[in-house]
User: Fold this.
Amino acid sequence: MRRILIANWKMNLNHQTQTQLAEDFKKRLKKIKQLEIVVAPSFVHLQEVSEIFNGTNIKLAAQDVAFEKSGAFTGEVSAGEVREIGCQYAIIGHSERRIKLNETEKMVSGKINQCYGAGMIPILCVGETSEERMRNETESVIIKQLYDSIYKVSGLPEKEIIIAYEPVWAVGGSQFLDPDELAPIAFLVKKTLSAMYSEKFYNNNVRFIYGGSVNSIIAPAFWSAKFLDGLLIGAASLDIEEFYNIASEGETFSARGQ
Ligand code: PGA
Assistant:
């Protein structure tokens, strides 16, 4: 499976800045051929950004989807709706939603189900808070998040899933995960999902990616990790040159077959 680079624009832009950034992505990322590039704009701009990316290799992701298919859920947006606009991916269970909006594992699990029902690939975010890290609970937190959100999902192990390890303390801040700390987490995710399904499932249907304050200075240290299938970028994806640099560094490593 190809390595993937995902831009999560969150709720940072308005109409003008979002369409401008989409135009910049379209122009600047033309040369990126090895990586799969995915952008997650805000819901209200999905349609317009989708039209800008039409005819390019850039794919679209929703930042979230509803945990039910349709019905009386004021304010929610269904997986079917975003799929119709062209989203092939959806970010599910982001820590900002889990923490600030009280999203539960049950909701996360429902959202993954809806992604599969609509024909989309979920990007499931997992990761520990700084308190959990201090209590040495990183491993147990990740195992629980994986079991609770995937275990009742229909569609696995046949479908694809992306697991984004995003330690909460390293997201959107000034704290960085030492890239050397990633290998044991990748191993843990592989072990857990292989035990739930099979190693073949992990090798063929799962991509393990990292997200958390990644910029173009630290990106090469992550791209050089052979077990890593991609990166999820927040703040640094709002700056086209920064994002382009992260992408071209990724291409160098992909091109070397690393
Ligand atoms: P960040 O965000 O790169 O700004 O830390 C990553 C994310 O929230 O996915």
